[in-house]
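Q: Entry one of two.
A:
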Amino acid sequence: MSFSVETDALRAFAATHKTVAAQISGAGNMDTATHVAAMTPVFGLIGADYLAMFAAAQVLHCQDINDLSSKVDKIGQSAFGTAASFDSSDSSFSSALKSAADQIGA
């Protein structure tokens, strides 16, 4: 059985996930207070309860988006770490193999 990893492709995967995480985070960092303030004249006093519930829902929505962003970012970090680990293992193994080959005169 053989196992092969293209670490450059793994790093590209990681970089893509870091970029996507930043984009998701940007979507989650909306100014809820400004949105509610802009809608207050439209709904007036009658819609105050609705706006209060809307604001609470928006805050929770933004938290969920930021949680998703954090998880996608962690996938990118893990992929970068995995690529580095594979590179390090390959380098260590090839050094040990070269040392063994040098000892037997190959």
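Q: Entry two of two.
A:
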Amino acid sequence: MKRLLSAVLLALLCLTPAMAAELADVTLPDTVEVGARKLTLNGIALREKFIVDVYVAGLYLTEKSNDPQAILANEGPRMMVMHFVRDVDAKAINEAWIDGLEANVGNVTPELREKFVELTKMMTDVKKGQEMGFVYDPATGTDVMIAGRPRGGIPGKDFADAVLATWIGPKPGPGKSFKQQILGGK
């Protein structure tokens, strides 16, 4: 049931709300609900690769924070959504996940590495206009959605933290400017 709620939640992101944030012609709502918890848009950022726009991301938290360690330490739900502004193949996405894991997680256990392998198996080519989402619920783990379809769930806060660290860790794959924006900076 929680996975169905996550699917409905991500589908609702496609609706244009009264209050919203916009970047690169992508609009994200200021708030969303995960289960009974309201999450607030912490920051919105544009991922660029070699001056080419790739996706607009939004990080939703129970309370806004610009402190990566505090965000990762928080035990509450959170959500990251990526709205793609160009086509990206699954191979490129998977390489970014593995690179991000290696660069941002100090001690990668075999169990965590296996969870990232599981994540790479969920990835598909993503087309312009499609969204990828990661909804973390402490009770169930992280639900992965691509193009409005549930791709599966991965248990454990260790995985949720490692995925988020690829964006807000010490060496974020999308770059320091992206990290600053997703943390609510300009």
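A: Comment on entry two: The chain is about 35% helix and 35% strand. The chain has a mean pLDDT of 92.
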